[in-house]
Batch of 4 targets.
Target 1
Amino acid sequence: MNILDLIALARMGCASKMTEISSSRLADALGSSQQTASRKIRDLEREEYIVREVLPRGQRIKLTSRGIEVLRTVHQELDKILQEHEPCTYIINGEVVSGLGEGSYYMKIKGYVDQFKSKLGFEPFPGTLNIKLKTEDDRRIRQTLQKLGGIRIQGFKQGDRTFGPVKCFRARVDELEAAIVIPDRTHHGFDKLEIISPKKIREALNLKDGDIVSVKVEV
Amino acid sequence: MNILDLIALARMGCASKMTEISSSRLADALGSSQQTASRKIRDLEREEYIVREVLPRGQRIKLTSRGIEVLRTVHQELDKILQEHEPCTYIINGEVVSGLGEGSYYMKIKGYVDQFKSKLGFEPFPGTLNIKLKTEDDRRIRQTLQKLGGIRIQGFKQGDRTFGPVKCFRARVDELEAAIVIPDRTHHGFDKLEIISPKKIREALNLKDGDIVSVKVEV
DNA sequence: ATTACTAATCATCGAGTAA
DNA sequence: TTTACTCGATGATTAGTAA
């Protein structure tokens, strides 16, 4: 069994529910022929990593708990490996700048706020502190965070609007409890950092535009 | 390239530094022949996932940043997949064991007690119920909690002693209101769980060492 | 459009062995 | 002990095609 086959199916949605996956679609994802994908699916079924339902024109697939188990094991392995490899504390310095108010908008959306509350343990002040990263080093750390797992906030739909997934990193701005927020599909470049906190950071730390702040993040 | 080969090398220490790995040792880890392991190492080197140094009797291997990158990518994939798959209620089973009395010590410290009172809504009985996790599943849930946010209790200084930050998860031990307490920098391993409650759990539920209890936690 | 069989081709494996 | 070669055997892949 190749773990990548299972991952491919999982990311197509088979982890959570019966999902229509034709053998040629899996073939595309794996970069193989339709025949190979078909055989791999049969193999995974035989080894009970997936269950499926073959219909007249197509099939529906879902990972079994045994399949999920495999993914979890590998995930945990990688967790350990990467944890040891990464430094556990980063310090990012940046300049306080004014945002466009979108932060304030997003921090009022219930779908986000509820998740922040349960996953970070605090209700964010409805607004974000925007930091501009001036040095290459700081931008590099930001880019590293982008790649790391962090605390995942799931995307959701509200009305006809879709709110994308973001991730967070617990941080401290001069001892003040806070979190860095990074959208999965980031719009602005790698030189901005958005920070949330239970309090209004600007007031709590008496900050104004142009001030340099130090953000400590532990991963 | 098979990701499992790279993972095997990484968990043997090659992620962080040049590490002596003979082809037969890798063969053991992969469950293959020495020849196959040797060829796989050469392949990984050719594709620049690792660098190595072949000595008269042995070799030293280290993952390149390209190699680490691959692990990180897979890790992140799995992160997303498993995140969506995680349930919001966990049930942890474990065996009641005697602690060393530290729980009782910490539960008398005002700096902690006040925070428990305000953040959990109850004053903890001055003592903890210690649970030993017997199965891999239970330990995995514990490890998951470690990563999640929970209710944060801040660290503080008192005199010349520093008390580290901990986090809590509201829980129930057989319907009894309680909370799991997990120190940020945990001293003991992942097979112990400390539980606090407004009442003395042992008496309220008539428990003794060796009894199995079920802890339900919602995140 | 599907899934999946067959048969030919291609890649991988490991015993034996050299250096 | 090592690493790593050759080469026959075994497995995996895919084109062609049936259903």
Note: Chain A has a mean pLDDT of 89.
Target 2
Amino acid sequence: MPELPEVESARSVIERSALGRRIVDVDDSDTYECRPHAPGEIRAALLGRRLTAAHRRGKSIWCETSGVGRSRTPGPALGVHLGMSGRVLVTQRDQTDEGGDYVGTGRSGQSAQSRHNPTWDRFTLTFADGDTLRLFDKRRLGRVRLDPDIDALGPDAGEITPAEFRDRVGRGTAPLKARLLDQATLAGVGNLLADEVLWQAHLDPRRPAGELDADELAGLRRELRKAIRHAIRHGGVHTGEIIDYRTRGAHCPRCGTAMTRATVGGRTTWWCPKEQR
DNA sequence: ACACGTGTTATGCG
DNA sequence: TCGCATAACACGTG
């Protein structure tokens, strides 16, 4: 579920409610979520430190950490990736969770029991005042790691300049949608956001990316920024206009043409075959 | 019961 | 080595 907008709200929760307090316990026993670290490795690296800042590029979050005790030497960065189903929850002593409840699964929302089921807590930091920061992740494709390689990612999709966008996205023979999904090209676009933006920009997801002209690339970037802002404001990529029409029997809400479904760039893709060229 | 999947990454091929 | 396609990963959901 999480794409750039949802990840930004998770980052914001950490910044607002998890910085500055001493870490007194770390549960890093989920070896899959914490790959490639051995159990206890992250724990040993973080005990006694504090989170001092929360950053994001695309779908990746990383937190700076303080020195231990009075040491000025900062600790390793704590990288958090939500994968397909991860949520960051900061639980206060009064048991209320902050974060993780972004609107926009659009469907059922989460039940009270799934919200508190510890089975899906894959990583937990406990602070000196008793609060906890947890990575709650049913599908277990999220990831926590020390010093993640952020430079392997392209520029953030919400901040990329027009020139960078033209040079990085508008090249190659891969389908346009595959280019948008490539996190090394541009960080933060997932499957749903890609379909939304391509529909808004009237572009065929199968077009070789290098064939787009300057106007088309400028329009695509404009729609991308618009869609990201809209999703952050309204609670996630599920609030996009075309998302509900990514289903069998649906018709384009602008022109009424039956929506087409195919695999493009390795992912299920829906588009309007009449308007998207 | 079974196919599907909103993310990343390893592998293989030309 | 590069660009691209595909499979694999884990496991809940419809």
Note: Helices of chain A lie at 4-17, 41-46, 112-116, 162-169, 176-181, 191-200, 214-234.
Target 3
Amino acid sequence: MSKQNLGDTIIRNAAELFRKQGYKATSIKQIANASDCTTAALYYYFEGGKAEILETVMQRMAPDQLLPEEKRALPDTLAEFFEIRTNLMKSNMPQLAERVRWLLMELANLSEEDKAPFQRQLLGIQAEMQKSLGAYVEDETLARQVSWVMFCSMFGYQQLVVMMGLQDESGLDPDNYVEAVRNVIFKDLLHLEKRVDHE
Amino acid sequence: MSKQNLGDTIIRNAAELFRKQGYKATSIKQIANASDCTTAALYYYFEGGKAEILETVMQRMAPDQLLPEEKRALPDTLAEFFEIRTNLMKSNMPQLAERVRWLLMELANLSEEDKAPFQRQLLGIQAEMQKSLGAYVEDETLARQVSWVMFCSMFGYQQLVVMMGLQDESGLDPDNYVEAVRNVIFKDLLHLEKRVDHE
DNA sequence: GTCTATAAGCGGATAGAC
DNA sequence: GTCTATCCGCTTATAGAC
């Protein structure tokens, strides 16, 4: 938590600047100023310059640790499951939305190869959701469809409403939206209990 | 359709470059090259330079004419309505997703005042959808919730799946996704017919 | 209207002092 | 390890010729 070494400080500051302004719009001078050093010092820690700084930041911005292990347990009813997962989302909301927005922005400039790990992580989130839903929902196709619509819908809410600033005008705060999702997507499923049939 | 005046050509080319690379990453030299003129010529048409070019492009990128007037008619059943609207979305898909992504990118750098017209347009799209749904769905709250979840979900699909390149890996093409939305969000509503009670 | 030429400055990057 | 000094290239922007 303390100052740590300069290399770490550089990455933390770069991450914030990249997130706020984008990679291209951030100069190494800005990163140096924020880190209380000169641009030359950046090159001591990151020979590859700005590009290597981005690479390092990318690794820390990865969306893989989005869901803490202890939160992946499956409660007895889908209603509880829905509660836990949406609360997790709500509590991470502004920061999560910002990170996701940044990823969406910068991914466009990456090669297919560099994109791949991020894509795999995103697909992993959906897969985990689908698998969890499968513990309650018998119909596999339905579990898949619900998980995707849920995933896209939450992603859309974050970017469209939160990041584009529609929240105030629409009065659609996270609680309202989760309520809408519960009512529209999950209404017929919430009574379902955990299945123990196979496995 | 023809060459028109240079000012128009500049804006069209700038719009394409901004959309592909972002505002900051596009130089006026690139715009000039694409428009077969020099940077000095840009300043003849846009004294304000790059910033004024952006302003002009912004006006043309506005999402207000997204839904042609003739498509706003309400068919007899919600099933038909769903069909027409989702087909419209599918047929516009790659271009629409790109424009929306650009808007999301650049909006972050705008002042609250400059953002306002875009926000109003987006809210208008949702409002129109809610109003249309209201012609079939009696419960006003439900119409509102469905329209928002639908809007966010479609937005999310565009950006998450289409723009972030998850389509191939997930096998979730637009047809699949619309099918999922139909099954998950609209399943209990599709039998509804147009109400003529009030009005 | 559109060009050439050029000013002024910022960006990324490096060499060498300490 | 970190700084000063500096290089080069590119960008925005303008003045003045045609």
Note: The longest helix of chain B spans residues 140-163.
Target 4
Amino acid sequence: MKRDPDSSKDLSAQIAAAIRDEIMSGKLIVDARLPSEAELAEHFAVSRPTVREALKRLAAQSLIRTQRGATGGAFVNRLSFEEAYGQQITTSTLLLSMNAVSFDVACEARFALERACAPLAAARRRPEHLAQMRREIARQSDPALSDEDFCASDVALHRALVDGSGNPVLSYHLAGAVEAMQPLMNMITFTARSRGAIIDLHSRITDAIEAQDAGSADTALCELADYTMTLGRDVMAARSTRAADHSRGTPD
Amino acid sequence: MKRDPDSSKDLSAQIAAAIRDEIMSGKLIVDARLPSEAELAEHFAVSRPTVREALKRLAAQSLIRTQRGATGGAFVNRLSFEEAYGQQITTSTLLLSMNAVSFDVACEARFALERACAPLAAARRRPEHLAQMRREIARQSDPALSDEDFCASDVALHRALVDGSGNPVLSYHLAGAVEAMQPLMNMITFTARSRGAIIDLHSRITDAIEAQDAGSADTALCELADYTMTLGRDVMAARSTRAADHSRGTPD
DNA sequence: TGAAAATAAATTGTCAGACAATTAGCTTCC
DNA sequence: GGAAGCTAATTGTCTGACAATTTATTTTCA
């Protein structure tokens, strides 16, 4: 375990990288205990605060966990699916919001991936997945629901569909794609008519999944993708029209 | 910007969470400068080392970057696709290696997602994507190539295919799925025969993408998925047979 | 006057040492 | 035997200091 001496990075970054390599290469296995902070400080010839900064970097990625007390220390953490979901969602959401990713591109990616899950979900969905989807459809049918909650329910329904594939790795990869769309969807104002259309498509998808009819599910998903993109384009068009009006001095 | 007072987490984790919320909610926009460490320490009523640990946590997730000097400080970082790829790959690789995910499950997820890219790639692939794929096929045809390099080239080919979809968000989501398979693929010993079969399928896929024939590309991808899973199952079978022999005391 | 050089100021990076809080294990006492 | 207390190890946090780096300002000199 050695840090790169002629690196331009911070000491704490170098040390974090050295330990990360040990973990990713399998030299440090799950639940293995790292040397104490004092020992690491001595080993790398740095001070304890510097070691601590390095450890916090690793903790931020859920690579280690720490425990106080006599038998405490830093331990290699088994990255759980839950933690991985969380990181996936954080990264995906920021990537989309910070890079001016167009609604169309994000939507295309999301539905392309979701369509990949549909056949598996149709084959393997279990009663709880169907129940979850029906529950969300019921929620969405409440006209008192705010646009934001409508989007949240939309996300929940789609995650249930993805989970129906019975492949946790697939669920993990899709988590970011589905959740990161929520902020973009929140820009849309859902009229009673558009809600009705979406709920109708959600019902068709759920019915198809229940009937294990992958073809119908795919068709409905494609229609939903088209419809969602249309809504997105309408918002963009309205926005640019308003901006143009503003620049010409037209009142609101 | 306030930290949760009755949280069981570390102070540095609470502060990191508070700042992360500000970034994710958009209150701190890209390139905005955070208060200096001394100011943050005063604001949160903690010491500077604690603030620094919090900032390192955020830096580990590429949420901020720091700069020394008079006009330096911590700035909200625009999460680039490159950085997001990296985090995606790290997380995916660890998730698979630490959770005893079966080869089949990981493989199924990967090919399901990749099949979702194929139609888009067939429609939009550009010459550089085809060239990259051909180049990797040529590399793979060299019998002197080690198994590890063969896998690396395999990953490179599939990433070129994914990038051919022309959707960077899709490429981002697939990066983890494709790259994280590499350690699992490395467990397989590729015979000349299996290499030939794989290269043949790679060629068919590339030809189909070049001909913009999404159907043929999908068929070849499915065959490749089946073949890869067969190889994986053979390895597992051989391994369990050997283990059983060992437990009965049979010599190697 | 203009440009180069020196200086000052602000900020992060690093260090040393200390004490608090927590936890496991051991010891002592009943 | 069990409960209470003590001890040791370890992480969590604080204080204060100095080094390194970068920008802005001032001074100096041609």
Note: Residues 10-12, 46-50, 53, 67-72 of chain B lie near DNA strand D (CB under 10 Å from a C1').
